[in-house]
Amino acid sequence: MHNLSPKSYRLPLQNKLVGLSAMIIIGIVAFVLFFYHSFSTSLEEEKKAQSKNFIESALGIIQHFHQLELSAKLSTSDAQQMAMRTLESATYGDDGYFWINDNKGKILIQPYMPNLVGLNMTNWADSNGKYIFQEFDREARNGGGWVSYTWPKLNTAEEFPKISYVAHYAAWDWLIGTGLYLDDMKSNIFWAVLRTSGVLLFGFLIFIFTIIVIINYFVHQLSELSVRDALTNLYTKRFLKEISPALLNHSKVTDYHLTAIFIDLDHFKLVNDIHGHDHGDKVLKQVATVMRHNAKQSDYCMRYGGEEFVLIGFFKNEISAVNMAEMIRHQVSEICFINDDNEFSVTLSAGIALHNSQSEESFENTLKRADVKLYEAKTAGRNRVVI
């Protein structure tokens, strides 16, 4: 019979650990989402700052050639041509470039779309109807700033959302800018964040998993200590109360009978009085060993209190339950205990009650009936099993 195994029962403390684990996982997910939002925002700001720094570098290049003009080493035309050629070749990243417009709106350099060079974009409007040059001119002359608009990508006529940082070089009255396509930027940020958060998450999950395994081990040990009798290592009365609902539910779906075998040592007080409590403890431990040796793997052996024991299990019929109890009773009576040169033995009495799964009987009542049968065994002379 596939019965309810003791190892399959999860203690309340372990259930709390499962809940704690779920909360930790939820916390990890929340952390990852927060990290993704914060890190992606940080990367976006960093990319914008990088574009602004590129423009400042471009202004430095223009200023260099302007100084050559002022020192009469180059003519104005040559200085401007050399500045434009330098910036035209100064691409960066996958598709980063600089563009320059003059004060009339004419495109002076456009590295990726050279066919636009020389055209006037004063009245150009993007797909949203925004007049791009006018926006560039206003932001640049106000000290530099960002302009959002739509612009075609390389080798395509479709326009994509873009932002450009523009600045004004007053000496030559030029507008210089460089931009970022929003979809490319977000894609780059997404994969950068995904890689970073993936590594962090993987390491964090390993850490949390390790912690949970360690905690689970100690919780299991603590749970076992909380429901195990320190002397006999049998389950305690507390454990019986915790597991009884699961036993009752299992009794409704099996043809075997949920059975309580109540066991009590006969005249155990005399053992303590005559041989001492140390030998009394040895007797209790030996009885526990006999119970465990004879019980099925699916049975529960418990020290109910003092010299009282309970075996809970599922039996095919009354005879199989009686045979189990008689086997335990007989083997205990055959044990010879020695106290110095004195030998002594002990006997036990047992009462058996089968739970009626077809009625509304509580498991507590089944235990009481087994206890009544134990009392009958005592009054009938002890050292016997009554059902």
Side by side, the strands of the main sheet go: 6-8-9-7-12-13
- Indicate the overall shape: rod-shaped
Mean pLDDT: 86
What integer value in Å does the Rg equal? 43 Å
Just give the CATH class of the largest domain.
Alpha Beta
Total of helices: 9
Query: Which percent band covers the strand fraction?
Result: 15-25%
Instruction: Calculate the terminal CA-CA distance, rounded to whole Å.
Output: 23 Å
Element pattern in H and E: HHEEHEEEHEHEHHEEHEEEHE
Give a quick set of tags describing it.
387 residues; Beta-Lactamase; Alpha-Beta Plaits; six-stranded mixed beta sheet; five-stranded antiparallel beta sheet; 13 strands
Protein architecture, described:
- The protein has 387 residues and is α+β, with helices and mostly antiparallel strands.
- The protein folds into two domains: 8-227, Beta-Lactamase (2-Layer Sandwich), CATH 3.30.450; 235-386, Reverse transcriptase/Diguanylate cyclase domain (Alpha-Beta Plaits, 2-Layer Sandwich), CATH 3.30.70.270.
- The protein has helices spanning 12-70, 76-89, 132-141, 182-227, 237-251, 268-275, 277-294, 318-333, 363-379, and strands at 99-101, 107-109, 145-152, 159-169, 174-181, 235-236, 257-265, 300-305, 308-315, 337-339, 342-344, 348-354, 385-386.
- The strands form three sheets. Strands 6-8-9-7-12-13 form a six-stranded mixed sheet, sandwiched between helices. Strands 2-1-5-4-3 form a five-stranded antiparallel sheet.
- A hairpin with a 4-residue loop joins strand 4 and strand 5 (174-181).
- The longest helix is centred in the first third of the chain and has 59 residues, at 12-70.
